[in-house]
Amino acid sequence: MPYWTRGQAGRETPHDLFRVLYFGWLAAFTLKLLGSAWDVSWHFKWLRDDLAPPHVLNSAGTALALALTIIHGYTGYGVDKAALRLIQWGTGIFLVAVPLDLINHRVNGLDITSWSPSHLMLYLGTFFMIAGVIRGWFMGAPPGRERVVVLGAFLAFFLENVHFPEQHQEYGILSIGAWDNGAVYAEPILLQFAADQMGRPIDRTMMTGFALPVPDFLYPVYAVVVGVSVLVVARTLIGRFGAATLVAVAYVGVRTLIWPLLTYTGFPPSAVPFFLVIAGLLVDVAFLVRPPALRALLGAAVATAGAYAALAAQNAVMGGVYDLLIGRQGLLGAPPLVTSSAVWSGLGLLAAWLAVEWLAHRRRASPGRAASPVIAPATH
């Protein structure tokens, strides 16, 4: 094992080793994505099981991520100090969150929301982990198509992670529609467990509390402020027109491909967030404006308005599509939309966009930081 030597973060990394490490991260995040994509659907059908197949699949990705974290930390290959710290902190937070989540379920029973504190810790850990990987690849990958494509893939994983809690509402809205059609996806023991925890009989009110447990305004506000901000970061880092759109297309495309695999094998379906593609396109268009502050102002306004309009259109159009594909009537194509929340979404996105512009300007203005990567992968 010629590369298994202790070293400081930032050491020169052989090109082939650099690629192996980051393609390993692609594999780890792919396993975690497949597990998480299955996980929400699983929990809308079955009572929680620590060793459920989605958890096992996600754990395999986590194990690979942990191994890569140890390799980076011990050898110093493939990362600068900032990337390594982000990866280590992210992995650490995630590993701490896992037993806390298990304890939470043991003490409090069923988590009737993806937005619980222990779940948010899992997302936060993954957030820092992927952020560190993005930085490591961004700083160290040589110019070329592979650099752009892999960076886009990591950013799509980043979008998937931040959007993950929103899937509760995306699955929930179609589960309520199924109830209204006289069908139930969840097994009886899960419904009874949820009803007992809420202190209610199994009725539509209980189903709504189970399927849509958070305020309706949260879905669009979070999607715009957090999700669209990731698309702004994607456009900034990749630096090409269409980058934000393609990152959104990649994530939505995966959700679209997974949809029939779950739906037609007996698992609950979800509303796919197609509106993110429109939001990504509008982010790309906004970057045609040159002055950063004006770009952020106009971009936040246009992207927010476009995302809300696209959500309304998705609800109207995809409801009928889901009716046809699932064999129901009167389904909605998106979670409830509170249009009055658009003001807060726009202000939140504007603040985030201005922060991204400021950080990008700071990086360009810092001597030596933008000139060359911290990691200089050797080609021999």
Automatic annotation (TrEMBL):
Coiled coil: none
Keywords, alphabetical: Membrane, Transmembrane, Transmembrane helix
Annotated transmembrane regions: 20-44, 56-75, 82-100, 120-141, 148-164, 217-234, 241-259, 271-289, 296-322, 342-360
Name the UniProt record assigns to this protein: Uncharacterized protein
Organism: Nonomuraea longispora
